[in-house]
Each structure stands twice: as C-alpha cells, then as structure tokens.
Amino acid sequence: MCAIDLLYWRNVKQSGAVFSSVLLLLFSLTQFSVVSVGAYLALAALSATISFRIYKSVLQAVQKTDEGHPFKAYLEMEIALSQDQISKYADKVLLYTNTCMKELRRLFLVQDLVDSLKFAVLMWLLTYVGALFNGLTLLILAVVSMFTMPVVYEKHQAQIDQYVGLIRTQVNSVVGKIQAKIPGAKRKEE
Predict the structure, then answer these.
(1) Taking the CB of residue 16, how many other CB atoms lie within 10 A of it?
(2) Any stretches that span the bilayer, and where are they (predicted)?
(3) What is the mean pLDDT of residues 34-48?
(4) Which of 41, 64, 88, 172 is the most exposed place for a label (fewest CB within 10 A)?
C-alpha cells in the first residue's frame, strides 16, 4: 500500500491506524520532550518483544517443541542500504538543496522585484502565523489536512474547482493591476 492509498482512505483500517498513531505521537510531543517520547516508545516496543520471546520460550518448554527463536526470520533479514540506494537518495537531496539555494539567492538578491515582494509578504504573514501557533500545532494541522483534504476534494471536486477558478481569476486580476502601477514590476515574457 502506498502513501496515496493511505491519504485517500482506500483501506480504512490501515489509514485509521496510521492517522491515529501519527496524531498520538504528535500530541505526545506537545506534552513531553522528544527524548522522553522516544524512550517511552522504545520501552514499549522492547516490552512487547521481550514478553513475546518469553511467552514463546515457555510455550516451547511446555509443549516440548523446538521451534527456535520467534524473531529468527527478522534477525536474518538483510537491512543494510546498498551503495546504489544511498547514492540515489544523496543525489536527490543534493538536487533539492541546490534548487532551494538558487531560489533563495534569487529571492533575497531581488532578481525579480515582484517575486521578492511576494516572498516578503509571505514572510510577514508567517510572522503572524508563528505568533499564533507553534511548530507542533502546525504539524498537527498539516497531518489532519493531509488525511482529510484529499477525500473532501475527491467527493466535491467540481464545486471546489469552480470556486478555485473564481479565486484564481480575481487574484490574477488584482496582481495584474498592482504590477501595472509599480514601475519596473512587470514580469518579463519567457
């Protein structure tokens, strides 16, 4: 199952399990430190595996069977990353980093006045968002949106597309008027 299937709730049980687990983790992080949450999760996992191992050992002793270690298949599984996989992911990270650095350089050094002004307005708005919400709250809102918006859009696509089109037309009209009034703000045709 891929991430898209989880977000579109194709399998309700799996999507519900992932959604509730992620929300529980994020809500835990709002109350406890990352170290504490990590330690508690590790202790819970370790308690479960130790209990299962002891249970299987007692069961084997009582039934006088020799099934071996209950996690033998997982212990023998290869989990190392290959050089090709590491190289592929490193190349993607490098490409993304270079693209971001070039775009930030372009915005901060005002290669295009309109884009830099848009960026400034976005940063100004983010100061207000930052004053209202902390990072974890925004992350919780993002997770809830990721699990609800695709389904809502899928069910009401026609109406949403109609309203987005109207908004886009209005925004483009206002931006065009502003660009016409600001000297040197007209975008170059590419």
Answers:
(1) 13
(2) 17-46, 132-153
(3) 93
(4) 64
